[in-house]
Structures are given as C-alpha cells and as structure tokens.
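Q: What does the assembled structure look like for these inputs?
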Amino acid sequence: MRVLTPASFDEACAMRAEIPDAVPLAGGTDLLVDWPTRFEAHDRTYIDLSKLPALRRIEWREDELVIGAGVTLWDVRRDAAIERELPLLPRAAARMAALQIQTRATWVGNVVTGSALADGAAVLLAHEARIALAGGESGAESIPLRDFYGDADRILQSKRALVRAIRVPRRRYSVAIFEKVGLRAANTRSDLNLTALESEGRWRIVVGGLTPRAIRCGNLESRIESRRSVDSPDDLLAAVRRDAGSGSEPDRSDASRETYAYRERALARILTTALSETVPWIRGNLRSGRA
Amino acid sequence: MSVRIEFRLNGRPAAVTVDESLRLLDLLRDELGLRGAKEGCAEGRCGACCVLLDGLPVNACLVLAVQVRGSAVETIEARDESRLQALLRSGATQCGACSPGVAQTVLWIAEHPDVAESFALEDLLAGHLCRCTGYRGIVEGARRTIEAEKA
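A:
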C-alpha cells in the first residue's frame, strides 16, 4: 500500500493523471470501515487530500454555494450562513453521522461512495447540485450530480480527474424536509431516506433506499404540484412506485437490513407525516379524515 | 511501505516509522502503548476509540496513522483525572469499555461552550455506544462536567 501526500491540489491532479487507479482519500470514514480484514484495500495506492487547505473552503457566489472537496459534515453544521440559507444541509449532516464522523467525513466522499442510502448524496440531488471536476484531459468542468452519482468511480477514472467541489444552487425554500429511517438517530445507515424541498411552487423530492440508487421522484413532485386531493398514503406511494419503476429495477431483495415491503410502508408513513406537517392543503385532507 | 511521520502527541513531538496501512488506533495502542482508546466495533459506530485530532473528536479506527503527519493527537492519557469526577459520581461508567471515549467527548464539549450551547448534549454524545449504563448516567455526568468546568 502507498499513500501519496500531495502538497497542492494541482499536484494531486498530476498524481491522479499519472496513476489513474489511485484512490482519492480524504476523511476515510467509509474507506476504513472494518479495515483490518479488508486486505484487498491494503494493496492499492491512495492520494491523501485531507491536508490540502484549498479543498476546505466554503465559498458563496452570487448564485451558488461552493463546498470544497475537503469540507466536512461538521464544517457545514457549524456554518451560520449555511444554516440561514440552506438549512437542510446542516440538518441532514446531523442525521448522517455522529460527531466523531462528522468531523472527518466529507460531503464529496458521501457522494463518491454513492450508495443507495448515502444521505448526503440524496440531499444534494434534491438541491440539484453540480460536481466540479479538475485535472484530467478535459480540465475543469462541471457536471450535474444526477449524472455523476452512482457512476463516480467510472467517471473519475475515465477522465483521470478529481472532484474539486460541490456547487449548490442558492434558492429560498419554503419547505425543507429530511427524514431518515434507521436503527439510530445518527451514525447508522438509513433503511430509507426522504428529502423534499419546495421553492416558489416547484417541488424537488428524492427518495433513497427503495432502489439501488436514490431517485428523484418526478411523478411524486407532479402529484403534489397538481394539488389534487390526497385521500390516502397510497395516493403518494403510487407516484413513487412509478418513479422507482421508471429508473432501475427496484431492489426487492430481503438480503438487506429490511425488506422492500418494510421500506415502502415506512416511506408511506414518513411521506404523509412530513408533508402533512408542512403543506397546509395536505394537512386539511388529514383533518377531514381523507388521508 | 513504511514511512516516517512526525506529529504532536499529547503536547509533545513524536516521530515514528509506520506501515502505511496502519490505523491511528493501532499506532497508539500497539506501537506507542497508549491503551486508553479502545477497539470496539472497528467501523466508527461505537466511539470507544475517540481521540482528538487537531482539536476535534474523531474515531481513531477510521484514521490512517500516516494521515496524522504534522497534526496534533490527544489521547485520554493526557487528561487530568480530576476532571472526570462528575462522570464517575454520576454512574457514567460500569464495565469501562466505552468510558475513555465518552470522557474525551465530554471534556471536549466542556472546553467548547459555543458547541455546548448550539447543539443538544444527546446529539453530541450520539456517537458513543454503552452496553451497561443505559446512558442516563453518561448524560447526567456530562451535564455536571460541563457545569463544573464553567464554574
């Protein structure tokens, strides 16, 4: 095993170009899980990005927030400006992991890992974030997270690039919901997660845990934007089923922590609870006993 | 491969040669004889291996030793035992496996009043699993420790 320690991000990019299969390493909170028994991981070359100050920056631009590749969950939780303007990011960070992991785990790491249950990736998908790449043959470029998430390894290797930052559009959200179902309040993988944002009548909803990758729920968004009566949780769930089916085949395996049926029931519950608490007309349905 | 790293350990300079696959937890316990940080789950869920890295609590099982090059590491061995009295009196410890990690986090919170004021204590302690106490003693001990440090 080799751990390369670049002195700058440019040097890290040069290392990546020279050794395309070198693994970028920052917080290491995913990489080092069960490390003593994962011998195959000990034979690789890593590029340690954790000491590069340039990647630890949080920057506000006119139309976006830029989260550097070394910015941790804790950095975002402690940032008063983010708390004011994009409060779902710190709120989700609090549920993604406990303090000792928040201080090491990066947002980019969560996205690159890209599991169906990566809470941070789901939240950023709902914010319609973009991924800023650097290095490689094409130089600096920015791609939508939806095109990057779940395919990060292949994209980064084929481009011989590194992630420099995540770019999050600035919007005022009147509804911002993040819910997860798991064995603990934090520091546990979600069985399911739900992110829902509403800005100027436009909804952005992402569900993680029902499918091999978290999905943007366009049918559910349209269903809510239509303001048609929600008579039962199944009304919403039917839309989610169309969203899950339109992408990849739903994971109906019982081998995961909980069954698909359990997760679907849990989603119906958190959807109706969360939305009825924040959306007056859905709450009205509930009061009249229609949902 | 083995590499030489220099860092600060409990306030003093340290220089060691480590295999690049070695975890910080193994460096502390096996190479340097600092056994306060415990190996519990090896996956960052239990908090028994909590140490401070550059002033922040981390799980030493999830950090490579080479990553502390140039950094400051503080382990429970550097802590003044007198500051742990409130935890002991509150029944925050029983078998003791989780206690060094819990104590590290509690003292860190006590040293950062802004953190203590901004976040719920239960939230800040959520990274520690205890199989004995039922947590009430830990939370109460943490409250008392923070109060004592304020005074």
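The beta strands of chain B are 2-9, 12-19, 50-53, 56-59, 72-74.
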